[in-house]
Amino acid sequence: MSSKSADYSNEKSFLAGETPEKDDALTDRYIENSWERCRDRYKISQHSDVKLVSLTDTEVKEHREPLEKLLSDSVEVFDKIRTLSKNSGYTVLITNEKGVAVKSFAESSVGHDLVAKGLRQGTLWSESLVGTNGLGTCLTECSPVTVYAEEHYGSNLQNFSCSAAPLISPDGTPFGAIDASTFANGNRLGQALALNMVCETADEIEALVFKDAYHNQRVISFSVSPVVSITKALVAVNDSGTIVAATTPILLTLGCRDRYEIVGKKFQDVFNLSFEQLEAAGSGSVEHYMQVMGKPYKFHANFLQNNAYQIQSPQSRIVTAKPLEIDTSIPVNTPLVLAAGKEPTLLKQATRCQRIVNKGISILLQGETGTGKEVWARALHESSDRADKPFITLNCAAIPESLIESELFGYGAGTFTGGLKAGKMGKIQASDGGTLFLDEIGDMPLELQASLLRVLAESEIIPLGEHEAVGVSLNVICATHRDLKEYVARGEFREDLYYRISGFQVTLPSLRQRSDQPVIIEKVLHMLCLDDGDVGHVEIHPKAMELLCQYRWPGNIRQLKNVLQYALCMREGEMICIEDLPDEVFSSDQLVRKEQDIAPPPLRMLSISSDSGSLSEKEELENILEQHRWVVTRAAKAMGVSRSTLHRKIKKYGLLSEDQLLDH
User: Fold this and answer.
1) What is the mean pLDDT of residues 259-272?
2) Cα–Cα distances in Å, from 380 out to 183, 325, 363, 408, 478?
3) What is the tens place of the pLDDT at every residue in 523-577?
4) Reported confidence tier of residue 440, pLDDT bands at 50, 70, 90
5) H helices of 261-372, where?
6) What is residue 593's DSSP assignment?
7) Domains and CATH numbers, the chain
């Protein structure tokens, strides 16, 4: 579940099999955002009909194949919504993650009329193509949504009322969506039933896929009653007691806006419940109370008898998902595994990358700015058979359009006035036999994309000003922080080049999404110390580490390096304390948790320029020293400052002479 899919976490819990009531304000925001995308990004004409794209039977079969086994083994789940749709006059569409309708149910007279209007299997409902609609907007927002009548962007869709919910895979990404549509009659409140239907079905599918993916892990189910037969609130836990995954219903129940609020944490710390208590219940459940969003909540928990259905289809990336773990056949000290750290999703990607790195499959790295795409690209190179050959990088966004072509292809002697007399070898030729890393490929000019596509297809280049082709052995890794699919839809990136460079896609999580933040922080700190020639062991005070882990890191690892470099300069001794951190990490709008849950700013943040400020700090110092019986070491540790800093403050306010203090 993305942060978007949990935005409606203030609504009714899913635990009892209930679906959250529709939040009109939330729906209005989704519709408004979608219309803005249609107008500004997709450049779809307003107040006009949109063209519904229909795929051939062969194309539909290709898109349906990865979901075939899931559709077959979920017959009982789909039968319920099929019956409701038949009796209520709805057409049901099931799509893959691209919005291709791979399955439909239309068994009423109204349903047949809807099919005739275009709501049928084989149609494409991507928001970038047909504008605001139930399926497309649901997949874009990764959230349940109803699009009613005039809320559709295309005029020819405004006779419909569509409610859709995303189908969530074990890693939290949508692998499709389910939609119930009918003609828009009366008011949009009538769509509450349809929204309930699709949300209920989506949750059951998510639970089914989840149980299969984590069949070799401990899966704990939660319900409001010990007699609930179908539970969709599930948590998967590994042998060390760490939560490795959770379904959408349990995340919503806990009020989590992001799955990483609990994934990566100890099960007992989150639920205040031990494995011993669950095991003691045997096949029964444990009645337990915990605080949920400040209120007591009673639930029943038990180990799931995980007899998940077995999926045989090797093509399906969704239903064959495995728990996030490293392939033990791959050494733990490979460049890819080292680059992954302790983050489960990256360890899984490291395993996959290791298997394909020498297979000639193009790799596209995606992620926010500063997430370490070049580090991952270099790890790919060092893990390949080309490791002893050059690793050449080119940032497509950092070079003016007028120069990027010559940087890539090079130029012959006398080509440019002011150029090198003997010409210059381009990046592509320089990477011959090694790896060429094209960062920010989404910023490459369209005309140059055509030239790059030809090079990738023919493995040869013609330097500017030359006539003879030069053969090259190419291995290209591309990276971007942009949504290339959206760029393709807008005509700003060539579709043929996109498929050429994205044989395998690796999405690097942002720093705030990673469950191994303390490991990353310590690793970056260690590297910075080595770069500065500091062979000592610098540590981070627990309070400082807690604040760093709470920060949202909009600049990701690149920003983390800057913050730690500053802290290294400010520290006294071998401990980075909370007062050594820059002001930016105390910004309330960039903290993950609520303001009242955050440790208060250190004393250096308090005003000491006025009498009232000085008095406040002096009293604070006296209180803490009294609590720790005037032992400086203990008081400094409690305050998250160094002893020398505390001594200076004590001297400043004349609290005691130095010989009266205990320094141990």
Assistant:
1) 86
2) 52, 19, 9, 21, 12
3) 899 888 888 776 567 899 988 998 998 888 988 999 999 999 999 988 888 899 9
4) very high
5) 267-271, 275-280, 335-340, 344-356
6) S
7) 24-205 (3.30.450.40), 213-303 (no CATH), 335-507 (3.40.50.300), 528-660 (1.10.8.60)
